[in-house]
Amino acid sequence: MGEVEPGPAGPLEPPEPPEAPASRRPGGIRVLKRNMKRNGSRNCLNRRSRFGSRERDWLREDVKRGCVYLYGADSTTATTTTTTSSSSSSCSSSSDLHLVLCTVETPASEICAGEGRESLYLQLHGDLVRRLEPTERPLQIVYDYLSRLGFDDLVRIQEEATNPDLGCMIRFYGEKPCHMDHLDRILLSGIYNVRKGKTQLHKWAERLVVLCGTCLIVSSVKDCQTGKMHILPLVGGKIEEVKRRQYSLAFSSAGAQAQTYHVSFETLAEYQRWQRQASKVVSQRISTVDLSCYSLEEVPEHLFYSQDITYLNLRHNFMQLERPGGLDTLYKFSQLKGLNLSHNKLGLFPILLCEISTLTELNLSCNGFRDLPSQIGNLLNLQTLCLDGNFLTTLPEELGNLQQLSSLGISFNNFSQIPEVYEKLTMLDKVVMAGNCLEVLNLGVLNRMNHIKHVDLRMNHLKTMAIENLEGNKHITHVDLRDNRLTDLDLSSLCSLEQLHCERNQLRELTLSGFSLRTLYASSNRLTAVNVYPVPSLLTSLDLSRNLLECVPDWACEAKKIEVLDVSYNLLTEVPIRILSSLSLRKLMLGHNHVQNLPTLVEHIPLEVLDLQHNALTRLPDTLFSKALNLRYLNASANSLESLPSACTGEESLSMLQLLYLTNNLLTDQCIPVLVGHPHLRILHLANNQLQTFPASKLNKLEQLEELNLSGNKLKTIPTTIANCKRLHTLVAHSNNISIFPEILQLPQIQFVDLSCNDLTEILIPEALPATLQDLDLTGNTNLVLEHKTLDIFRLCVSALAMDNFAEGVGAVYGMFDGDRNEELPRLLQCTMADVLLEEVQQSTNDTVFMANTFLVSHRKLGMAGQKLGSSALLCYIRPDTADPASSFSLTVANVGTCQAVLCRGGKPVPLSKVFSLEQDPEEAQRVKDQKAIITEDNKVNGVTCCTRMLGCTYLYPWILPKPHITSTPLTIQDELLILGNKALWEHLSYTEAVSAVRHVQDPLAAAKKLCTLAQSYGCPDNVGAMVVYLNIGEEGCTCEMNGLTLLGPVGFASTTTMKDAPKPATPSSSSGIASEFSSEMSTSEVSSEVGSTASDEHNAGGLDAALLPRPERRCSLHPTPTSGLFQRQPSCATFSSNQSDNGLDSDDDQPVEGVITNGSKVEVEVDIHCCRGADLQNSPPLIESSPTPCSEEHARGSCFGIRRQNSVNSGIVLPMSKDRMELQKSPSTSCLYGKKLSNGSIVPLEDSLNLIEVATEVPKRKTGYFAAPTQMEPEDQFVVPRDLEEEVKEQMKQHQDSRLEPEPHEEDRTEPPEEFDTAL
Question: How far from the centroid of its chain's Cα atoms is residue 1031's Cα?
């Protein structure tokens, strides 16, 4: 914390806190000792347990002041990664919490003196525990930690440091905590009755028994240190239960002269502990001791009695040098061959390790070494030496003495050239130097190393090559140059080269020798020419995708053994006949080119996989299916196909085609009969074509069909013969004109059914649903009436957030969270991140500040769940633009991970996010390298994730950070829509294609689903998530109330909302559609179907707690409060719990609400009323259709209201409301007059009082804008009328109303009444 000015270290004299007076300690430190409650599920402090106001006042005086929470050594809660809910809920007196007030200059020794303790211990992310040095400053450690996370403001850092929830990320202990299970694995000991031998000649005697390492140690109780000790090696032995004596075990060693000891335990728990640990030892074939990840500073003293240990694993500890069991004593293991000391932060090389001459394997990775001692040359038997992740720049010459060394790892160090010592190490056959600082590829140095065959130089800084002579190299066979900066590469001198990786460089030209070439991977470059001479007769796999090639190289056409060819994402216009008719080619990838036609096949070919998507094809070769009889996969999506070639040359088809993707073409009904010629089809995608019918007789013959996608066509029905497809598990037919529900619920394997955005009117669901059914999506069927329970829906690992009425109606928030393979974190972020944003917006007006803090605080709030799990996150916030008066609204986007947002402006995509991955962000990759993370060959940080910034995964700190990328964009009238998508979506759809695909789709739900369908048809195998938000920015903007409120469906995989706009919107009205899909090839555990859009009830006016309470109207300077007229805008949302009854009511006597469709789980009722004049109420039309387009000018002064019901099966239904149910209720006591309070706090309207929405008789003159509902009070604070008094109260309220109502004047005689605002309660 360079910004913190160092102050003199001295006694601190903070004021005495009134809640818990602090006692004086040595050094002037104030310590507040409290028994503070813990949250059993999070292992963090309860928010109610905080220090008082006087301490806060003391902290505010100086940012260098703060507090440290000092935990006790509670063995059940210390290690959060292994605690259980039962153990974490119980805290002993030793886990009392001390709140220590200190400064950033206060050392640990001063705190220890005040506490009467020897040392302080630091634990990060519930993982390892490290002893602090006396000079280390605990508060400064916390400040530095928060600063590296992304907090910039010192005042905010001070505030975060005092938050007790930070304990899930960083905490201090007064004593070293240790889990009981860890202790058992390190050492078991106790005094028990022991009998030696298998016979009963010996008597039982009380002895001290120790199980440590690989041996059982039995000694006298009195003379346990000086007396005779019996050591029993257990590796290869056996452990048996003694049946004649309760809780007794017989330990036996291996060999012909095996000895046996009988040990009698007192309790069953002890018996099981010893049996469990001893069984692991006897089952080993090699004497191995694993003490990794135990926060050890030294090995147990009894371990040295296990002299048969050959492999010792001490990875991820804090081993010290000069201790009784420290590193300087490991030479006592006389038979030790393998030693792992990686991730111990040693700093200096332990020289005494060089005296263990028996070592053959030594791992010293990630210890911060900057040099190696010359004594390392004494390890003459060493065969494997791993030094990855250090700061080495050179290797000592003495290392050349290790003539048996066959593996040397020096990746992710700071070498600028290949060490010369490699020339002496003749047993080495690999140069593994990934992640170093090499800038020149010197082939001359490699030519002098005749024993080197493999060269790994990925992720260096290679820019140029250096060739000392033209002499060829006949030894190197494998070269890996991925993720460098090479522009030209000539490796023609490597005559024996078999495999080359050069992806993600900047290559324009590549020249190789083809004598021995077998595999070539050169994707993601700028190649215009690839020269290989002679023709590679051994080449089997060639990847030239994502380059600038205009034709397939001639030498590739002549390769006789090529099996895989990938030239996708290039500029090809034609495909050579020699390629397509190759007798060895089995996989051909030609997608994303400009190919207009394919040559006609004459001979039979062995092709099995053919990808032709995103070309300009109008037809396929007539002989494709008759000549490519082995073809199993064909993807011709995103072309201009109008017909398909026949698969039958005679009476019987020989086609073996199983996967056929034809999405986004011009196919008509005439192509359906051709499909019958492929009887083995398992997956068929015909989405976004021009199909009007699907003949029943044709579908009847596709009996092997497992997945069928017919979405985006003009189908009116699904053939009844679909019931013959017994293997069908997925049917996707959204965005059609289907009016009859197909007979699919009788299929035995059906899992996923998507019939959303159709014209369904009714559906009869059988009482016995298929056990395999996971998702039935019927959203967007506006005329559907469903009177049956909905399904319990499985969840995806992608969650979405949509709040169109955020911060009391002045903004909107949209988000997407992708947990890859976990769903817990996306759900947590979905439910909490909007609340955090609302809090941060109230603290700062700077969009960069409040967005960054939102992500960082959400990162902290993940608690224990965020220690091992991580999630990508994307958040979009629309609000009035206070910085640019010319613009009405601004869009602020923040993201970490791989979720992205794209804005459509004038039909063109505008990317708003940054992809934080190692492959796409060189700056982030360099940062991770500088932090000495190990990046595996699949480009993952420590083999876990490819993302460099995420929420969660705190155990990967400091490599993975939560600080987001933030952009702020003023919205204009040219901005049409906003697309949010996860990694799977953008990997298969370009920004331009995504925008053009949904730009003219009217329904946002249909638009989102279309994006998911396209991604799947283009080959996406993962969970796909997409959200489409339609924007409507008016020319006259203001910061008044939001134009509308969007309520999301309570459940369902896809949720859609549609806005009813005023003629000239004053705020950006938005309609959002959320969709997500799953792949049919995923396992059942990965299949789910819900991208929830639930938001916090506390701040979402459309949530469960949306109350009908008055509040002042917000007006901007352009639109001051009108001097006359009344306004009213009251949206309502009621959520009915399914734990009461099927219809959402809490009594069997109550009837379902008329006109409200219940799904047995939740029901949402949204009433959206425009500003209107009371005189126009009678002349209002009985039904106003919900539409994303603005209302007409004629209706601007009239009533535009209705009820739109949204649940998992319907949305967008608008019903007329009778006049007598819209009378204005003006008494505050009527807020819950017609509601019935449930046990869960929700309010259920009765049948005779459906509408809680009251309409005012006057409205403001301004035609634009209608207003959001205020936040609802807690249910227990509301006035609930008992049922037996309802009629009496109603009559009194009606009389009170009638006494206040005045006769309504005619339109021509209307005069402006005095200013009066009457909001429905």
Answer: 27
Any residues with CB less than 8 A from the CB of 258 and at least 6 apart, and which?
A: 237, 252
Per-residue pLDDT at 902 = 97
CB-CB contact of 1015 with 1041 (8 Å): no
Distance in angstroms (rounded) separating the CA atoms of residues 645 and 630: 16
Within 10 A of 845 (CB to CB), how many other CB atoms are there? 11
Q: How much helix, strand and coil, in percent to the nearest 5, is found in the chain?
A: 20, 20, 60
H/E run at residue 161: helix 154-161
Residue 26 pLDDT > 60, yes or no?
Answer: no
Q: Structure pTM?
A: 0.76
DSSP 1300: H
Structural tokens at position 1239 = 């046990």
Stretch (H or E) spanning 836? helix 824-843
For residues 814 and 806, the answer to whether their CB atoms sit within 8 Å is no
770: which residues sit within 8 A by CB, 6+ positions away? 745, 746, 747, 748, 749, 750
CA-closest candidate to residue 1046, choices 1024, 1025, 1023, 1028 = 1028
| Measured CA angle at 655 (ends 650, 660), to 5 deg | 130
For residue 677 the two structure tokens come to 């010629």
What's the pLDDT tens digit per position in 41-74? 333 333 334 567 888 888 889 999 999 999 886 5
- Do 443 and 462 contact (CB within 8 A), yes or no? no
Q: How far is CA 1041 from CA 706, 812, 975, 1065, 1199, in A?
A: 50, 12, 20, 11, 19
Using pLDDT thresholds of 50, 70 and 90, give the confidence band for residue 842.
Answer: very high
C-alpha to C-alpha distance for 828 and 837, rounded to whole angstroms: 14
Dihedral angle sign, alpha carbons of residues 863, 865, 871, 876? negative
Q: What confidence tens digit (pLDDT) does each residue in 203-224 have?
A: 888 999 999 999 999 988 776 5
Beta bridge partners of 206: 193
- As a dihedral over the C-alpha atoms of residue 655, residue 659, residue 665, residue 670, rounded to 10 degrees, the angle is 40
- How wide is the angle at C-alpha 914 spanned by C-alphas 911 and 919, nearest 5°? 120
Look at residue 874 and give its three-state secondary structure: strand
Rounded distance between C-alpha atoms, residue 146 and residue 154, angstroms: 10
